[in-house]
């Protein structure tokens, strides 16, 4: 079928892959095979969660995507280019870890300004951008606080603001809500979805919680036990914006059941 150039461009944009992993394996120097032959393409704008048994290599995959460690086999393309140069990648990829990893001696605002440190911007601009990121996570009144003066949920919000401040196209989140109580976890899930929809990023998310994975995601990737590979990637066809009521629907339970089945090898 003939299509115009404009139509082709739109199609290309819609299916552009932000991450392409093909035949990716990682063997650590001590011989540990962390992941073996991982294949997955992730399109722009997806919110994809990775679930899988402990030790199957989820964090290793994220570390390879962010450039913290190298893969030993296969290829990883990020945002249309091969992994290097590191510097180019770092500005486009944000990382949120399970613990909020804030510097205790720096204020909330100064923590969020960290990723801007080496950018050629005035201090005023950096402060404004950090303040905006904090507003996005609902913490604009806490700029001067120190991390120890915040609750666990608030620290995690600061950590998310710090990842967002450089406006990454790709946000990697490794069990960010694992240490939070259920109520805080659910309110942060809703906030994260709101941010994802407003910022038009691609989010890769690791969780052990199947309900969390289904609630948040456009797709859930299930990994096999160690050494992991992606066993299935299930579309979550629940409409956005999602609210708490979706958790009580049959459609939601059906998808949770399906992911749980895929997890039993
Ligand atoms: N630096 C390292 N050196 C050697 N082996 C490692 C290293 N880091 C991770 N591994 C091994 O790689 C495998 C995958 O680890 P990884 O941390 O990616 O798992 P995970 O899926 O994130 O687990 P969890 O759900 O418990 O966080 C494990 O067997 C682990 O022992
Ligand atoms: Mg991990």
UniProtKB/TrEMBL annotation:
PROSITE patterns, alphabetized: ABC_TRANSPORTER_1 (PS00211), ABC_TRANSPORTER_2 (PS50893)
Renumbered to this chain, the signal peptide range is none
- Could you name the domain of life of the organism this protein comes from? Bacteria
> Ranges for the ABC transporter domain?
19-250
InterPro entries tied to this protein: AAA+_ATPase, ABC_transporter-like_ATP-bd, ABC_transporter-like_CS, ABC_transporter_ATP-bind, P-loop_NTPase
SMART domains (UniProt xref): AAA (SM00382)
MF terms from GO for this chain are:
ATP binding
In the UniProt record, does the keyword Translocase occur? yes
**Membrane-traversing stretches:** none
**Gene3D superfamilies, alphabetized:** P-loop containing nucleotide triphosphate hydrolases
Which keywords belong to this entry?
ATP-binding, Nucleotide-binding, Translocase, Transport
Q: Does the keyword Repressor apply?
A: no
What name goes with this protein? ABC transporter ATP-binding protein
């Amino acid at each position: 079928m003939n299509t115009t150039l404009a139509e082709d461009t739109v199609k290309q944009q819609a299916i552009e892959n932000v991450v392409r992993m093909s035949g990716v394996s990682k063997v650590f120097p001590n011989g540990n095979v962390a992941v073996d032959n991982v294949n997955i393409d992730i399109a722009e704008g997806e919110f994809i969660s990775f679930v899988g048994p402990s030790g199957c290599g989820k964090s290793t995959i994220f570390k390879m995507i962010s450039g913290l460690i190298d893969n030993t086999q296969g290829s990883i393309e990020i945002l249309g280019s091969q992994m290097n140069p590191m510097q180019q990648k770092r500005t486009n990829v944000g990382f949120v870890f399970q613990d909020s990893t804030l510097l205790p001696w720096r204020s909330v605002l100064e923590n969020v300004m960290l990723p801007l440190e080496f950018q050629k911007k005035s201090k005023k601009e950096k402060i404004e951008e950090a303040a905006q990121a904090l507003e996005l996570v609902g913490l604009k009144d806490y700029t001067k606080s120190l991390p120890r003066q915040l609750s666990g949920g608030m620290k995690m919000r600061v950590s998310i603001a710090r990842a967002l401040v450089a406006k990454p196209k790709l946000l990697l989140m490794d069990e960010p809500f694992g240490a939070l109580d259920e109520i805080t976890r659910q309110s942060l899930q809703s906030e994260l979805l709101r941010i994802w929809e407003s910022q038009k990023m691609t989010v890769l998310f690791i969780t052990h919680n199947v309900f969390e994975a289904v609630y948040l995601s456009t797709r859930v990737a299930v990994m096999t036990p160690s050494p992991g590979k992606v066993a299935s990637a299930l579309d979550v066809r629940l409409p956005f914006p999602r609210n708490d009521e979706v958790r009580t629907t049959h459609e939601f339970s059906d998808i949770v059941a399906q992911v749980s089945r895929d997890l039993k090898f």
